[in-house]
Amino acid sequence: MDANMKAAHTSKTIVLAAVCLAGLMMPLSFTGPAVATPAIARDLGGSPVALAWVVNAFVLAFGSFVLAAGTLAQEFEGPARTRAFSLLGTTFGVGLAFGPIWSGLLIEHFGWRSIFLTGAVIGALVLLFGVPRMRETRDPDARGMDGWGTLTFTVALSLLIFGIVTGPQYGWTGTATLALLGAALAMLAAFVAIELKRARPMLDLSLLRYPRFVGVQLLPLATAVCYVVLLILLPIGFIGVEGYSELKAGIMMIPLSLPMAIVPFLAGLLARRYPAGALSAGGLVIAAAGLAWLATMPVGQQSMAIIWPMLLIGIGTGLPWGLMDDLSVSVVPKERAGMATGIFSTMRLAGEAVALAAAAALLLALMQSGLAQALPDARAMADISAIANDMAAGALGQAATHLGDGGKAMLVAVYADAFRALLLALAALTVAAALAAWLLLRPATSGKGVRADACTTHGA
Predict the structure, then answer these.
(1) What does the buried/exposed string (b/e) look like for 402-412 if buried means 16 or more CB atoms within 10 Å of the residue's CB?
(2) Does residue 78 come out as left (phi exceeding 0), alpha (psi in the -120 to 50 range) or beta?
(3) Residue 363, Cα to own-chain centre: how many angstroms?
(4) DSSP string covering 97-130, please?
């Protein structure tokens, strides 16, 4: 191997290490703030709308700009690309598995601010060593960043999330909520119009004509519904309702997150013999069963039985999780792989942001409804909203100060009913996503169009 080849190999290794380090930071950016939310609420206060943006701000920024970034970078091809995706998935799984424990340790010993400092240090290392060695796209017709497209997409996603999280506060038919949602639709329409006029758009809408491409985009939405939502809501419940410390809450998340360090790799091996669509659909059905099982678990009793449905959800989600990254680039021509990665990553992050906002809003609305029925005396809506806000932030003790004797037990019952209803709704959505994945990702009978047949052979 001559000097140039050695230098190229070293550069690729550094780039892969930087990408994996960034992949390690992503789950920390989810699980860390989730574990820290009750501590942040105790320290700084804040409504559920404000606290939701602790996570949503990261998701929104990442999801908005990764679409544009997808048009600029593609470093690996063929078997090397498959190995790179496998290593990236494993790194991501390690971050998910041990992120909650790491976050709990940091909070207990150094405070909640140390979580965000950790992310800043990792990001700085990636920028310093990885970015200078990344090459631009090999698509000869690429035209760089799409400024107007990026702007309109970011504004549309921001308005949509803001409208969803404020819905329970101002009412779904309130002027503010309707204005935000209407403005989001208008900006989305503007984004689509801009992309249709560009010769080389960062979002190639023509690919949506291919069912398998659409099917791939549904997978991250499904995993957001059945898995990512729990990464955020469960730690808050463990700390605020069950009474666990931040470290104990992190330990309790292991059954949900540990399968992500193992199952995605096994999914890649299974995909050599079985269709990816069937594996993905089967995994989502398993996850839905876990959600339904979790809905039967007692709340407020620190029951260890909860670990079994959590484990089932993690195993089920790990199957599509291990397949969808490689699938995202296997269904398009090679020269558009960077763009496809950008679209897929954007769907993942945007879907997670919307799913988190919608789940939190639904949980808050269900708690408000439960409180309105459970309180023995007539309470003003402002009082009910304040109590529900404290509950959603994981401050059940603070919420109980609004009530008399026995207030905390009643709040736990209201929270339990609301959380069960949310879990059942998530299970139903996951089953629907499983059916869609099975229908859309079935093996193609024709080689026309994008490389659809690669979906069933990407693990080979």
Answers:
(1) bbeeebbebbb
(2) left
(3) 17
(4) HHHHHHHHHHHHHH-THHHHHHHHHHHHHHHHHT
Tokens encoding 419: 């959380």
SS (H, E, C) 152-199: HHHHHHHHHHHHHHHHHHHCCCCHHHHHHHHHHHHHHHHHHHHHHHCC
Instruction: Residue 234: name the closest of 309, 286, 168, 166 by CA.
Output: 309
H or E segment and range at residue 136: none
CA–chain centroid gap for 330, Å, is: 22
pLDDT tens per residue, range 15-57: 777 777 777 777 777 777 778 887 887 788 766 667 777 777 7
**Widest CA span in the chain:** 82
As a whole number of angstroms, the distance between CA 307 and CA 350 comes to 29
pTM assigned to the model = 0.78
- Whether the CB-CB separation of 346 and 217 falls below 8 Å is answered with no
First to last CA, the chain: 28
Burial class, 205, CB count within 10 angstroms (exposed 0-12 / middle 13-18 / buried 19+): exposed
Residue 225 DSSP class: I
**How far apart (Å, rounded) are the C-alpha atoms in residues 114 and 223?**
28
What is the rounded CA–CA span in Å between residue 242 and residue 38?
13
Q: Distances in Å between the alpha carbon of 245 and those of 99, 305, 342, 372?
A: 15, 19, 38, 30
Is the distance from CB of 326 to CB of 85 less than 8 angstroms?
yes
Q: What are the distances in angstroms from CA 255 to CA 38, 197, 252, 355, 433?
A: 21, 48, 7, 22, 23
Phi-psi region of 171 (alpha: psi -120 to 50; beta: other; left: phi over 0): left
**Burial class of 379 by CB neighbour count within 10 A (0 to 12, 13 to 18, 19+):** middle
Quick one: tokens of 95? 């971050």
Instruction: Determine the Cα–Cα distance for residues 199 and 292; give it in Å rounded to an integer.
Output: 47
Read off the pLDDT of residues 142-164 as tens digits, 9 standing for 90 and up: 555 567 777 888 888 888 888 88
The two tokens of residue 129 are: 């060593």
Best CA proximity match to 71, nearest among 122, 14, 134, 130 = 134
